[in-house]
């Protein structure tokens, strides 16, 4: 333990200011005891350089151990995560490929169905057009037949009318001659 002031100089200073030698020595002695007690209390809370270095070495060794453990854990965890990530990536790629295949299949099926429906509709239209054409021809034929029949009946009626008129005229002339 070191004192950081001159005790004899303090005793002399106290004597110069009116204290007796005995009083000065008692005061300095009390100051030294108080300082020693305070220093003891401070030293109890303080750590020596050697203790500090030992504690620092222990902490550094614990930190080194933790670092090693962290590196080991990090490598194992990261490698596990990486492998899991790679598995997930592969599964996603497979799922993506399957989805794309299904989309392509659905598109081609839809295109095929559309073209089949278009051809069915075209065929149906063609059949309807043929049926309409045939119906138009039948109607035209029937109308022509009816016109022909009408003309034929007209001619027959004209013949009968002319025959009836000539017959009536002949009968009228015959009566006229008879009476005249």
Largest sheet: none
Q: Please state the structural category.
A: mainly alpha
Q: In total, how many domains does the architecture comprise?
A: 2
Number of helices: 3
Helicity level, as a percent range?
over 70%
Number of strands: 0
Approximate shape: rod-shaped
Low-confidence residue ranges: none
Straight-line distance between termini: 196 Å
CA gyration radius, whole angstroms? 68 Å
The topology string of helices and strands comes to: HHH
What is the typical, i.e. mean, pLDDT?
A: 89
Task: Provide an overview of this structure.
The longest helix has 131 residues, at 49-179. The protein has three helices and no strands. By secondary structure, the chain is mainly α. The protein has two domains: 1-46; 48-143. The termini are far apart. The radius of gyration is 68 Å and the shape is rod-shaped. It has helices at 7-16, 21-45, 49-179.
């Amino acid at each position: 333990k070191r004192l950081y002031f001159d005790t004899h100089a303090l005793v002399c200073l106290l004597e110069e200011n009116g204290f007796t030698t005995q009083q000065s020595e008692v005061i300095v002695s009390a100051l030294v005891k108080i300082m020693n007690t305070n220093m003891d209390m401070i030293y109890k809370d303080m750590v020596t350089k050697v203790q500090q270095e030992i504690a620092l070495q222990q902490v550094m060794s614990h930190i080194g151990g933790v670092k090693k453990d962290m590196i080991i854990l990090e490598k194992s965890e990261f490698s596990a995560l990486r492998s899991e990530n790679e598995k997930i990536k592969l599964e996603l790629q497979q799922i993506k490929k399957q989805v794309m295949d299904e989309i392509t299949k659905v598109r081609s099926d839809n295109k095929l169905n559309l073209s089949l429906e278009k051809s069915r509709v075209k065929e149906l239209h063609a059949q309807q057009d043929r049926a309409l054409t045939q119906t138009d021809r039948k109607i035209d034929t029937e109308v022509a037949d009816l016109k022909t029949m009408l003309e034929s009946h007209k001619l027959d009626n004209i013949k009968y009318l002319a025959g009836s008129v000539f017959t009536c005229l002949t009968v009228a002339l015959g009566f006229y001659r008879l009476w005249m």
